[in-house]
Write a structure and sequence with these properties.
4-stranded antiparallel β-sheet; elongated; Guanylate cyclase domain-containing protein; Alpha-Beta Plaits; about 150 residues; Nucleotide_cyclase
Length: about 150
Protein backbone atom coordinates (compact mmCIF):
# COMPACT_ATOMS: atom_id res chain seq x y z
CA UNK A 1 0.00 0.00 0.00
CA UNK A 2 1.34 3.43 -0.96
CA UNK A 3 1.31 6.47 1.31
CA UNK A 4 -2.00 8.28 1.11
CA UNK A 5 -3.97 5.27 -0.12
CA UNK A 6 -7.10 4.19 1.70
CA UNK A 7 -7.44 0.81 3.39
CA UNK A 8 -9.63 -1.60 1.44
CA UNK A 9 -11.45 -3.84 3.96
CA UNK A 10 -12.21 -6.38 1.21
CA UNK A 11 -8.54 -7.19 0.62
CA UNK A 12 -7.18 -10.09 2.63
CA UNK A 13 -4.91 -9.26 5.54
CA UNK A 14 -2.81 -11.42 7.79
CA UNK A 15 -2.92 -12.18 11.47
CA UNK A 16 -0.07 -11.39 13.78
CA UNK A 17 0.67 -11.81 17.46
CA UNK A 18 1.69 -8.80 19.47
CA UNK A 19 1.74 -7.31 22.93
CA UNK A 20 -0.63 -4.38 23.16
CA UNK A 21 -0.03 -1.67 25.70
CA UNK A 22 -2.30 1.08 26.90
CA UNK A 23 -1.50 4.00 29.14
CA UNK A 24 -3.50 7.04 30.08
CA UNK A 25 -2.95 10.24 32.01
CA UNK A 26 -4.83 10.16 35.31
CA UNK A 27 -7.02 13.14 36.35
CA UNK A 28 -6.81 14.37 32.77
CA UNK A 29 -10.19 16.12 32.77
CA UNK A 30 -9.16 18.22 35.76
CA UNK A 31 -5.78 18.98 34.18
CA UNK A 32 -7.51 19.99 30.93
CA UNK A 33 -9.84 22.39 32.72
CA UNK A 34 -6.93 24.04 34.55
CA UNK A 35 -4.36 24.09 31.74
CA UNK A 36 -6.88 24.91 28.98
CA UNK A 37 -4.91 25.65 25.78
CA UNK A 38 -1.73 24.51 27.54
CA UNK A 39 -3.06 20.96 27.71
CA UNK A 40 -1.64 20.11 24.27
CA UNK A 41 1.87 20.93 25.45
CA UNK A 42 1.20 18.82 28.57
CA UNK A 43 0.12 15.81 26.48
CA UNK A 44 2.99 16.27 24.01
CA UNK A 45 5.56 16.40 26.81
CA UNK A 46 4.20 13.17 28.28
CA UNK A 47 4.02 11.71 24.76
CA UNK A 48 7.70 12.53 24.24
CA UNK A 49 8.54 10.35 27.24
CA UNK A 50 6.13 7.53 26.32
CA UNK A 51 7.09 7.36 22.64
CA UNK A 52 10.81 7.63 23.35
CA UNK A 53 10.87 4.83 25.91
CA UNK A 54 8.61 2.49 23.93
CA UNK A 55 10.73 2.99 20.81
CA UNK A 56 13.93 2.38 22.78
CA UNK A 57 12.49 -0.92 24.06
CA UNK A 58 11.49 -2.31 20.64
CA UNK A 59 7.86 -1.17 20.67
CA UNK A 60 5.93 1.35 18.61
CA UNK A 61 3.41 4.02 19.48
CA UNK A 62 0.31 3.08 17.52
CA UNK A 63 -2.13 5.87 18.33
CA UNK A 64 -2.78 8.72 20.73
CA UNK A 65 -6.37 9.51 21.61
CA UNK A 66 -6.74 12.43 24.02
CA UNK A 67 -5.17 11.26 27.26
CA UNK A 68 -4.50 7.71 26.04
CA UNK A 69 -1.52 6.15 24.29
CA UNK A 70 -1.92 2.85 22.43
CA UNK A 71 1.34 0.94 22.04
CA UNK A 72 2.44 -2.32 20.39
CA UNK A 73 5.34 -4.77 20.56
CA UNK A 74 5.03 -7.06 17.52
CA UNK A 75 6.62 -10.50 17.44
CA UNK A 76 8.75 -11.42 14.41
CA UNK A 77 7.42 -14.01 11.97
CA UNK A 78 10.06 -16.51 13.15
CA UNK A 79 8.60 -16.29 16.68
CA UNK A 80 5.17 -17.47 15.50
CA UNK A 81 3.87 -20.77 14.16
CA UNK A 82 0.45 -22.09 13.20
CA UNK A 83 -0.99 -24.85 15.38
CA UNK A 84 -1.64 -27.81 13.06
CA UNK A 85 -4.76 -28.92 14.95
CA UNK A 86 -6.50 -25.60 15.56
CA UNK A 87 -5.05 -23.41 12.82
CA UNK A 88 -4.42 -20.71 15.43
CA UNK A 89 -1.24 -18.69 15.60
CA UNK A 90 0.97 -19.44 18.59
CA UNK A 91 4.23 -18.10 19.95
CA UNK A 92 7.31 -20.28 19.73
CA UNK A 93 8.84 -20.21 23.22
CA UNK A 94 12.30 -18.64 23.01
CA UNK A 95 14.59 -16.14 24.67
CA UNK A 96 13.60 -13.65 21.96
CA UNK A 97 9.91 -13.96 22.87
CA UNK A 98 10.65 -13.66 26.59
CA UNK A 99 12.85 -10.64 25.97
CA UNK A 100 10.13 -8.77 24.04
CA UNK A 101 7.64 -9.52 26.82
CA UNK A 102 10.12 -8.17 29.36
CA UNK A 103 10.77 -5.08 27.24
CA UNK A 104 7.10 -4.14 27.20
CA UNK A 105 6.91 -4.30 30.99
CA UNK A 106 10.25 -2.54 31.45
CA UNK A 107 8.99 0.24 29.15
CA UNK A 108 6.15 1.00 31.53
CA UNK A 109 8.46 0.96 34.55
CA UNK A 110 10.84 3.34 32.77
CA UNK A 111 7.95 5.66 31.85
CA UNK A 112 6.89 5.80 35.51
CA UNK A 113 10.45 6.62 36.58
CA UNK A 114 11.00 9.24 33.89
CA UNK A 115 7.71 11.04 34.57
CA UNK A 116 8.65 11.24 38.26
CA UNK A 117 12.15 12.61 37.50
CA UNK A 118 11.37 14.81 34.50
CA UNK A 119 11.90 18.56 34.90
CA UNK A 120 9.06 19.11 32.48
CA UNK A 121 6.71 17.08 34.69
CA UNK A 122 7.93 18.86 37.84
CA UNK A 123 6.62 22.17 36.47
CA UNK A 124 3.13 20.62 36.53
CA UNK A 125 3.65 19.38 40.09
CA UNK A 126 4.47 22.99 41.00
CA UNK A 127 1.66 24.52 38.92
CA UNK A 128 -0.48 26.74 41.19
CA UNK A 129 -3.73 26.03 39.34
CA UNK A 130 -3.25 22.27 39.33
CA UNK A 131 -2.35 22.26 43.03
CA UNK A 132 -5.33 24.43 43.93
CA UNK A 133 -7.67 21.99 42.20
CA UNK A 134 -5.75 18.81 43.15
CA UNK A 135 -3.52 19.36 46.21
CA UNK A 136 -0.04 17.78 45.94
CA UNK A 137 -0.60 17.18 42.23
CA UNK A 138 1.84 15.01 40.33
CA UNK A 139 1.57 13.49 36.88
CA UNK A 140 0.32 9.92 37.23
CA UNK A 141 -0.50 7.39 34.58
CA UNK A 142 -2.39 4.11 34.39
CA UNK A 143 -1.05 1.16 32.40
CA UNK A 144 -2.24 -2.11 30.88
CA UNK A 145 -0.58 -4.86 28.84
CA UNK A 146 -2.43 -7.47 26.78
CA UNK A 147 -1.49 -10.17 24.30
Amino acid sequence: MQMGEDVDPLLPGHKCIAIFGFCDIRKFTDATEVLQEGVMLFVNEIGEIVHGVVDRYQGAANKNIGDAFLLVWKFDEDSIHTNGETGELELVPSNKVSQLCDMSLISFLKIIGLTKRSRKMKKYANHAGLNKRMPNYEVKMGFGLHQ
